[in-house]
């Protein structure tokens, strides 16, 4: 199974766990009138659901470990040098945050007139940087983040992990 599929499977398993917990709530209790006898047949017993839930939780833990190991051992090449997948993911997040900050600075005017407090004074707020330079920096940093994001996607689709997903997919 590819790492990209494992990430999707992890989400699917979490949803199945949620459904089974909801099913436990439905199966664990029954409302009857005072003298009404308990039914002898249930579609699934509480124990059946617990066994299935434990199997999925075990698979989820194993899958999570395999994904973490793959994220640590898979190396991608970037302009900043080789990085493990886990570090590259964080780096891409940081680069996108930096690009947003640069873009915010780029969108500010070089000079901004503000009304003063009290008397009729005019205050001018001056940017101590060139907004156009930060627009260009934002574009360059976003390109770096996009390149790393593409390398991460590519690695996710070529990195294989040993997990039998036939029960779920």
What does this protein look like?
- The protein has 169 residues and is mostly helical.
- It is built from 4 helices and 4 strands.
- The strands form 2 sheets. A two-stranded antiparallel sheet has the order 1-2.
- A hairpin with a 2-residue loop joins strand 1 and strand 2.
- Helix 3 (85-106) runs antiparallel to helix 4 (131-158).
- It is elongated and about 85 Å long.
- It starts with a helix and ends in an 11-residue tail after the last helix.
Supply the number of helical segments.
Answer: 4
Low-confidence stretches: none
Structural class: mainly alpha
Q: What is the average per-residue confidence, as pLDDT, rounded to a whole number?
A: 94
Work out the number of β strands: 4
Helix fraction? Answer: 55-70%
Strand order of the largest sheet: 1-2
Rg (C-alpha, Å): 28 Å
**Morphology:** elongated
């Amino acid at each position: 199974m590819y790492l990209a599929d494992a990430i999707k499977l992890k989400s699917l398993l979490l949803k199945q766990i949620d459904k089974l917990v909801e099913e436990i709530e439905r199966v664990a209790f029954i409302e009857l009138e005072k003298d009404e006898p308990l039914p002898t047949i249930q579609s699934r017993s509480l124990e059946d659901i617990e066994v299935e839930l434990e199997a999925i939780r075990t698979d989820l833990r194993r899958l999570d470990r395999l994904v973490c190991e793959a994220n640590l051992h898979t190396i991608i090449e970037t302009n900043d040098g080789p990085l493990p997948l886990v570090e590259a993911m964080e780096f891409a997040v940081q680069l996108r945050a930096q690009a947003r900050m640069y873009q915010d600075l780029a969108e500010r005017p070089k000079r901004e007139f503000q009304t003063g407090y009290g008397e009729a004074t005019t205050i001018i707020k001056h940017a101590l940087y060139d907004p156009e330079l930060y627009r260009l920096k934002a574009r360059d940093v976003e390109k770096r983040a996009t390149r790393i994001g593409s390398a991460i996607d590519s690695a996710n689709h070529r990195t294989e992990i040993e997990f039998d997903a036939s029960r779920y997919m």
